[in-house]
Amino acid sequence: MHHGTARDTTASPSDPASRPRRASPTDTTTVLQPGAGPVRSRRYLPAEADRVLWGRLPNADDRPVLSLAPGDDATIDTVSHEGLLPDQGGDPVAFFGRYGVPPEQVLDDAVAVARTGRRHPEHDGPHVVTGPIAVEGAEPGDVLTMTVLETLPRVPYGVVSNRHGRGALHGEYPVDGRTVSVFADVVPGDDGPRGRIPITEGGDRYARFPLAPFLGIMGVATPGERLHSVPPGRHGGNIDVNLLQVGAQLHLPVLVPGALAYVGDPHFAQGDGEVALTAMEASLRATIRFDVTPAAEAAQRFGELAWPLVETHEYLVPTGLDPDLDEAVRHCVRHAIAILGARYGMEPHLAYAYLSAATDFDVSQVVDLVTGAHARIRKADFADVR
């Protein structure tokens, strides 16, 4: 196992990292095989077959694969499920080879998961999650904060898929009912690497778009049976909020002793809504810091944390989740009112009015069985509040 050198970080638990290290390699042929290449933290967690779950999320009975003290960070390899799934042939070397990717540019851990990973094809989700990670002393009632310190693309390509009639236009796409997997590569751009998708099948014209890497799945374990990896919830999981880029934090209620955190579903880019079903799915090496706020202090800072709360340098981002998108938005509005009350002492009817005047409510995703909405509350609007 390779260990990198620990480096100083500038963010505190209440202040997201102010100097994002948006990891996009200038060499668009870079491949970060397990243990190879830069590792920011001295604690490194590879995505080995016995350190991941495929299709399910950790529960209270799972043994941690890594234990940390509050305030510790870890560099964690994540593996995208695209190219591994049965509807793509179950062989990532063969799947990506069809798009001209040589075998040495296919991740060894992705190959291992495809060959040896245990996943029920009908009852489990598609996602590969790394963990769980125990945070010492974390207890139910506390809040776990996961701060994204770095995201390094592990490969120079990704996939956008539409399958199972699950996108926003289910019943219309995919037209023939089969899985459509669109290969997207990474190419140089004037302002850094960009994703590229062809305009026509086999054509030589392309749409190019900026990369914005983030982890679609960040969560904590729950009591009871292991949850399916697709629907998000109070535990976090597959929330797919694309603001969770470098410098952002995710605040989650601790639901089991040790929190038992996990990450996965790595993305290179995603539009709000994720309308075709997936983002540009591609593997990342992420460095995350884990902090714990004790229950009494958490009640003052967060109120009752009914749903995951994202925080960036610029925004407070309350979320709302429900199978019905209208109801998800309502949950999000209630969450926003509650967080404004807890953080700034704002009275509910005044918070409601402020949100209507000044806050954007966005659709996080509409394709994960449980839909998501999130709000962007500008922290600068409350800079003078004492």
Automatic annotation (TrEMBL):
Domain of life (superkingdom): Bacteria
InterPro entries (alphabetical): FmdA_AmdA (IPR004304)
Sequence segments annotated as region (Disordered): 1-42
Gene3D superfamilies: Acetamidase/Formamidase-like domains
UniProt cross-references to Pfam families, sorted A to Z: FmdA_AmdA
Database matches in PANTHER family: FORMAMIDASE C869.04-RELATED (PTHR31891)
Protein name: Acetamidase/formamidase family protein
Native source organism of the sequence: Curtobacterium caseinilyticum
